[in-house]
Amino acid sequence: MLLVIICIAVSAAFMFLFLLEVAPKRPQVVSQRLTEIQSFGGESRAVLQRRRRAEQTERLKSVVQTFGEALAERSGVPGALRLRLVQAGYPTSSAVPIFLGTRVLLPTALGGGSLVMLPLLGLSPLACILGVVYFSAMGYVLPTLIVGIRTRKRQKEMRRALPDALDMLVVSVEAGLGLNQALVRVADEIYRLSPVLSEQMSLVNLEIRAGTAREEALRNLADRTGLDDIASLTGMLIQTDRFGTSVAQALRIHADTMRTKRRQRAEEAAAKTTIKLIFPLVFCIFPALFVVILGPALIQIMQALAGFGA
Length: 310
Hints:
This protein has helices at residues 2-22, 28-40, 45-75, 79-87, 95-120, 125-174, 179-189, 195-209, 214-225, 228-243, 247-276, 278-309. It is mainly α. The two termini are 44 Å apart.
């Protein structure tokens, strides 16, 4: 039990540290300006502590990034890894080196720390070996697990907001706006519902303004999101732009299809609830019912048997 508690605590701590390292930081110019403003009001202990923690975090980040860059130069960076990090919301150039460095340094740190700490707790050699293997495997799997969870969370948010965004896009195009202006308008309006989808749609317009072809910008949108629904939407827009058909009519048909798929997903989730309720019923509700229904009968039987024995 003690080993399980230690494993859970250390896992949670290092998960928090990894999120803190990979999360985008405040720009350096803003941090310097805030430091100057704080210096005029006097140096408090809390401010100094926060500054020290920020410096330690930046130092640790630079070490991990340097190690990851060395690994990337030696083995190369696969395009699938960069795309997966972009889909998880880490589009910066430092995300790949930090990920690679964390995947190597974190198992080493966890395995070495457990190799030192577990024998001090008085555990058996077998338990120490199992603990070292557990922490090392956890350190190797944890970065990939966090990236996967974040990717699925972002995709779920975009999938929920996509039908509403399509309806707004249809209305904007039918009102006379061009496709680029309609994307900007929808990105501004959909921000309250899904900031992720709003950001991705804004990037499409920025790429087109920068000189990228509309077809390539739409394909980049499908790659950044990793959603089949957005891939089908961009494919439809590319075909419409290529053959010169009506964008508004194609968008309306696609929006109706998206609404139908959304309703079908809801019906599928509702049909799965009966299967998912089996486990709570068996493990939580049925034992309580057995205690309430059979408990008094068992007590009476025991009392009657005790009377016969007397």
